[in-house]
Amino acid sequence: MALRLDEIDAQLLNELQVDADRSNLELARLVGLSPAATLHRVRRLKRSGVVRNIAARLDPAEAGFPLQVYVSATLARHEPRASAAFERAVRAMPQVIAADWVAGEIDVMLLIVARDVAGGGIEVVLTERHANMRFMAGAYVFPGGAVQDDDYATELAAQLDGAPLDWPHPLDPRHAWAHAVAALRETFEEVGLLLGAPASAAAQLPVLRTKLGAGRPLSALLAEAGIRLDLRQLVPFVQWITPRAQPIRFDTRFYVSAAPSGQIAEHDGRECVALIWRSPQAALADAEAGRITLPPPTRRSLAEIEGAVSVAALLEQARSRPAPHVEPIIREIDGTRMILYPGDPDHPVRERILRGPVRQPF
Length: 362
Hints:
The protein is built from 10 helices and 13 strands. With 362 residues, it is of the alpha+beta class. The protein folds into 2 domains: 7-47, Orthogonal Bundle (Arc Repressor Mutant, subunit A), CATH 1.10.10; 107-327, Alpha-Beta Complex (Nucleoside Triphosphate Pyrophosphohydrolase), CATH 3.90.79. The radius of gyration is 23 Å and the shape is globular.
């Protein structure tokens, strides 16, 4: 029978993952229990198998391994036999010291939709996630969501123009196509903007959105309406991998695109309960003042684009460099839990690839 964990157990597990070398007295202070009660809980977690073992984390450079390489692999087929064969192959490689399935088979696509502002500058659309969502509830994020099986539908080919632009580590063409479609579909579902559609289609979109929300496949709706989508309007911007210490992990790719003319953004009232257009500077100021909550990837992506003077300049910025691959790590430093980005001395990737600070409180 699985051990039932309460909030104190969860807190203990978090602290042990940050630093398992702490004394029992220090653990007790952190979780607010007596030393005896803390020791009992830790032993129970070990006996039950929740904590399998305590390991040491080495400094790779000091241990003689100054270079670490992160490799992203995507399986062409996701059936159990293919996954098992891949796992056996990875286990047979002595050079591989860690390997993770990132959110199972799920990739998440988000879309930064930007429009020009009179007098210069840009605004982007942000949605407030429903308070009952299991991930980032109540936060303001860019529209988007998980890739679904329908995004791979071969019937969509007849309604798509152009090949999606490549990421720095090119995807299998089938995956690249599905990822771009997922970004378009999720944005249409959540905020009613169908990017890549011609301006002449604007009047049909409210009805199509309702049918899509009712479960009709996007391929069928586009065919019935005679609408073709141009995938080249989506430009890869940044790829975020959730830190390993987090219980829910995602491989999230952010695209950037210009807001389509003649279309009106409106939140769906289900996953998204509010929608705002904000300049990157204003959104960051709102978060700093506590008026909205921005998850770290959203906040850092806004910081990357806050200097854009126009949508055209933003798109040129995105096209002019490879989309960065960012996998933060979480460490406790001087008693404060910090999130560290590439470029921080304690991050495995020593090259700075984002603007702004390389470490922040988590």
